[in-house]
Design brief:
The complex is a heterodimer. Chain A contains twelve helices and eleven strands. By secondary structure, chain A is of the alpha+beta class. Chain A has three domains: 194 residues, no CATH class; 63 residues, 2-Layer Sandwich (Alpha-Beta Plaits); 124 residues, no CATH class. In chain A, the strands form two sheets. In chain A, strands 3, 4, 5, 6, 7, 8 and 9 form a seven-stranded mixed β-sheet that branches. Chain A has a four-stranded antiparallel β-sheet with strand order 2-10-1-11. In chain A, helix 2 crosses helix 10 and helix 2 runs antiparallel to helix 11. The longest helix of chain A is centred in the last third of the chain and has 44 residues. Chain A is elongated. Chain A starts with a helix and ends with a helix. By secondary structure, chain B is of the alpha/beta class. Helix content of chain B is 38%, strand content 25%. The longest helix of chain B is centred in the last third of the chain and has 18 residues. Chain B is globular and about 50 Å long. Classes of the chains: A alpha+beta, B alpha/beta. Chains A and B meet through helix 9 and helix 12 of A and helix 2 and helix 4 of B.
Chain lengths: 432, 236
C-alpha cells in the first residue's frame, strides 16, 4: 500500500467509529482551544507592550540612579558612616530594579561629563495640591512621573516642548469632563491653574497652557508637565525649606544622541556603570514586566499542555480499542502481504489525523470566540487602554500549536500502532 | 517435469513448551503441482490448518524444509514473503473475514490496495472480479447485509482479484447450507479447471474432498492413509 493509500484508509478508519472519534477529537479540541487562547493572550499583551515602547518610549533617554553596594548581610552589623552620602526627600522609586542610592549635584555633573550624554535633569517629585480651569472648581492632580522617559499617546494637540520657556501641560483624557472641557480639541490652548503649597504650608498658584490631551496608557497615568513648569513648581514646593534639608535626587534623566545605535547605548551604559551609576532605558524597565508576563503566560500554556496530554491518553485508548476491534482486519491485511511498517504507519496516520482534526477545530473555535471576547473587552472594561487588543492570533504560534498536537498524537499512537504491527496473522484469523 | 508449486519435506510444528507442548504437525511431506486441486482432510485439531498456514507462509516450521516455486521458504526475506502472499496467493476462509462496515467493493479490492494500485485500477479490477462471480450489483452494499452465499462469493472475488496462482480455501463451505455450498464449490473448481489456479482446500467434508484431484489425510499431526481416516470418520 502506498502512502496516499495508507493515508486515505487511515482517514476512512477514523470515521468508522464516529462516536469514539468524536469524543477523542473533543478532548484534543479542549487542549488546542486552551493553548490557542493562552498563546493569543501572550501575543496580545506582548504586542501591546512593544507598541507602547516603540511608539511612546523616548529612545534617547536613560534613567540614571546611583548604584549601591551589596546590601549588608544579616549578621554584618551597620556600615560605617559616610558624611558625603546625600539624603533625598521623598521615598525611593518604587520601580522594580531601582536602587536606593541618592544622586548629588556633583553626581549630576559627572553624569553630564560622560561622553555621549547631551543633557542631564534631576527627576524631582512635585506634589501639586489641585488643578482648576476657568473657576469651575478645584480637583486633585496626579502627576505622571515617567514624563522624561516617554512620549504621550496623544488624543489631540502635540507633545510637550520647552520653546520659549512657557509652562505647558498635557492632560489625560479622563480629566476633560471634570475640568469642564467639551472635548479634547477644545482643551488645546486653554490655561489651567495649578495650586501647590510651599514648605511652610502657604498656597501658591501657577498658570500653564494645555498643549495636548493624552490617551490612557500603561506607561504612567496622570498629567504631564514640561521641564519649566516642573522647575517652577519644585521651586515653590521647596520655598522656605531650611538649607541642606534635601540635597539629593533618586533619579536623573540623561538624554543622549537619538541617532545612537544600540552598541553606543551599551557603551554609554557601561561608562556610567564604571562611575557607579545604573543607567536603564525604558525598554530595560519594561523588560522586567515582560519577564513577569512571560512567566504567567508560561503557566497558562502549561495548563493547555496538560489538557493535551490528557487528550493524548484518550488517543492511546481510542487506538487500543480500535486495534482490539480490528484484530481480524489487521490479521487479514497481514495475510494479504501488508508489511509491519505499513500497519504501523496506518495507525500512526489515524492518530495524526485525529490530532489534526481536533487541533484545527480547536484553533478555529478559539480564534472565533477569542476575537469576539477581545472586541467586547476592548469596548468595555479595557476601553481606557486604547490600542490594547488582549487576544491576538498570529499564524506562527497557531501553526506551532497544531504541529505540537499532531506530534503528541503521533507519540500517543506509538503503543497501539506497535501492538497492531506485531499482530500475528494466524492468531488473528484463528477460529473462535 | 515442471517445478512443483509447493514441495514440503518432513514439516514439524509445535506450540507451547514443556508439559503444555503440543505437536500440531509431526513430520508431513507433500508436493503440490501447478494447476492441481488438493484437499487437506482431517478432523478439527488434526493439524490440517497448521499445514495450510505453513504452505501459505503465514507461519514457519520448526523443522523440515519448504520450497515455494522452487525457492527455499526459509531463505525468503519478509518483503519477498509479503509480495508472494499478495501477488500469488488468494485466501478463502470459512469465517469470511469481511470488513463489516466497508462496502463489498472496498472489501474485494483490499489486496490491490495493499499492492499499491491506483484507485481507478482497483475499482476496474474489483468490479471485474465481482462480475465474474455474478455479484456486481452488490458492489456498493455493506458486507454485513449479504447472505452467507453472497459473502462467500465476495470472499472468492477478493481471493481472485489479484490473479493469484494459488487459492487457499479453509473450510470454504463450512458456514453454508448444502445448496449454497455446492454452488461455491462449483465456482472454486471452475477457477481450477478454466483458469489453471492451483487449489489447496482444507476441509473435514469427505464430499468436498472427493471432488479434488488428490487428498492428503492428516490425523494427530501425521499424514495417514486415506482409507484409515475414512473408516475412522465413518465409525465416529
Amino acid at each position: 500500500m502506498n502512502l496516499t493509500g495508507i493515508f486515505r484508509t487511515a482517514v476512512g478508519n477514523t470515521f468508522r467509529s464516529k462516536l469514539r472519534t468524536t469524543l477523542t477529537v473533543t478532548a484534543i479540541f479542549i487542549g488546542a482551544f486552551t493553548l490557542t487562547l493562552t498563546s493569543a493572550l501572550g501575543t496580545g499583551v506582548a504586542t501591546y507592550l512593544d507598541v507602547q515602547i516603540a511608539g511612546f518610549g523616548a529612545k534617547d533617554v536613560l534613567a540614571v540612579t546611583k548604584t549601591t553596594g551589596p546590601e549588608p548581610g544579616l549578621g554584618d552589623g551597620p556600615a560605617p558612616y559616610d558624611p558625603a552620602v546625600a539624603t533625598a526627600a521623598g521615598s525611593p522609586g518604587a520601580e522594580p530594579g531601582a536602587s536606593a542610592g541618592v544622586l548629588t549635584d556633583k553626581d549630576l555633573e559627572s553624569i553630564a561629563g560622560t561622553t555621549g550624554v547631551l543633557e542631564v535633569n534631576a527627576v524631582v517629585t512635585v506634589m501639586p495640591r489641585y488643578i482648576e480651569h476657568d473657576r469651575n472648581g478645584k480637583f486633585q492632580l496626579v502627576v505622571n512621573e515617567a514624563t522624561a522617559l516617554t512620549k504621550a499617546d496623544l488624543a489631540a494637540g502635540q507633545q510637550l516642548s520647552e520653546d520659549g520657556n512657557e509652562n505647558r501641560t498635557l492632560l489625560p483624557s479622563s480629566y476633560l469632563e471634570t475640568l469642564g472641557f467639551d472635548d479634547a480639541q477644545s482643551a488645546i490652548g486653554e490655561k489651567v491653574t495649578i495650586g501647590i503649597s510651599d514648605y511652610t504650608g502657604a498656597m501658591h498658584e501657577v498658570e500653564a497652557t494645555v498643549t495636548g490631551v493624552q490617551n490612557l496608557t500603561l506607561l504612567g497615568v496622570g498629567a504631564r508637565m514640561n521641564q519649566s513648569l516642573t522647575e517652577e513648581l519644585y521651586a515653590l514646593q521647596t520655598l522656605g525649606e531650611p538649607a541642606g534639608a534635601a540635597t539629593g535626587y533618586f533619579t536623573a534623566s540623561a538624554h543622549f544622541d537619538p541617532g545612537a545605535g544600540s552598541e553606543q547605548v551599551e557603551t554609554l551604559k557601561a561608562d556610567l556603570a564604571d562611575q557607579g551609576y545604573t543607567a536603564r532605558t525604558l525598554a530595560d524597565q519594561i523588560g522586567i514586566f515582560q519577564t513577569i508576563l512571560t512567566g504567567i503566560i508560561g503557566v497558562l500554556n502549561a495548563f493547555g499542555v496538560i489538557a493535551l496530554l490528557a487528550a493524548g491518553i484518550g488517543i492511546i485508548n481510542t487506538l487500543l480499542m480500535s486495534v482490539q476491534e480490528r484484530t481480524r482486519e489487521i490479521g487479514l491485511m497481514k495475510a494479504m502481504g501488508m508489511g509491519k511498517g505499513r500497519i504501523y504507519a496506518l495507525f500512526s496516520f489515524e492518530a495524526i489525523f485525529i490530532g489534526l482534526l481536533g487541533s484545527l477545530i480547536g484553533a478555529a473555535a478559539a480564534i472565533t470566540t477569542g476575537t469576539i471576547i477581545s472586541n467586547v473587552l476592548a469596548d468595555t472594561i479595557l476601553a481606557d487602554l486604547q490600542g490594547l487588543r488582549i487576544l491576538q492570533f498570529a499564524p506562527v504560534p497557531v501553526g506551532a500549536i497544531i504541529l505540537l498536537v499532531m506530534l503528541i498524537s503521533f507519540l500517543a499512537a506509538t503503543l497501539p500502532a506497535r501492538r497492531a504491527s506485531r499482530q500475528n496473522p494466524i492468531d488473528a484469523l484463528r477460529y473462535e | 517435469m515442471n517445478t512443483p508449486v509447493f514441495a514440503a519435506r518432513n514439516l514439524r510444528k509445535s506450540y507451547g513448551r514443556g508439559t503444555a507442548r503440543f505437536d500440531a504437525l509431526d513430520g508431513v511431506s507433500l508436493e503440490v503441482r501447478a494447476g492441481e486441486s488438493i484437499a487437506i482432510v482431517g478432523k478439527s485439531g488434526s493439524g490440517k490448518s497448521t499445514l495450510m498456514h505453513l504452505l501459505a507462509l503465514l507461519d514457519s516450521p520448526d523443522e523440515g524444509s519448504l520450497q515455494v516455486h522452487g525457492m527455499d521458504a526459509s531463505q525468503l526475506s519478509t518483503k519477498q514473503v509479503n509480495l508472494l502472499r499478495n501477488q500469488d496467493f488468494g485466501f478463502v476462509f470459512q469465517q469470511f473475514f469481511l470488513i463489516p462496515n466497508a462496502s463489498v467493493l472496498e472489501n474485494v479490492i483490499l489486496p490491490l490496495k495493499i499492492a499499491g494500485l491506483g484507485a481507478g485500477e482497483c475499482k476496474r479490477r474489483g468490479m471485474a472480479a465481482l462480475e465474474q462471480l455474478e455479484i456486481a450489483e452488490k458492489a456498493k452494499s455493506k458486507a454485513t447485509n449479504l447472505s452467507g452465499g453472497q459473502k462467500q462469493r465476495v470472499v472468492i472475488a477478493r481471493a481472485l482479484v489479484n490473479n493469484p496462482k494459488v487459492i487457499f480455501a479453509d473450510e470454504p463451505t463450512g458456514n453454508l447450507d448444502t445448496v449454497t455450498g455446492e454452488r461455491v464449490e462449483d465456482i472454486l473448481f471452475s477457477l481450477n479447471k478454466d483458469h489453471g489456479i492451483t487449489l489447496v482446500i482444507v476441509t473435514h467434508d469427505p464430499d468436498l474432498a472427493a471432488r479434488c484431484d488428490r487428498r492428503i489425510f492428516i490425523r494427530d499431526g501425521r499424514q495417514v492413509e486415506s482409507l484409515a481416516l475414512e473408516t475412522a470418520g465413518a465409525s465416529a
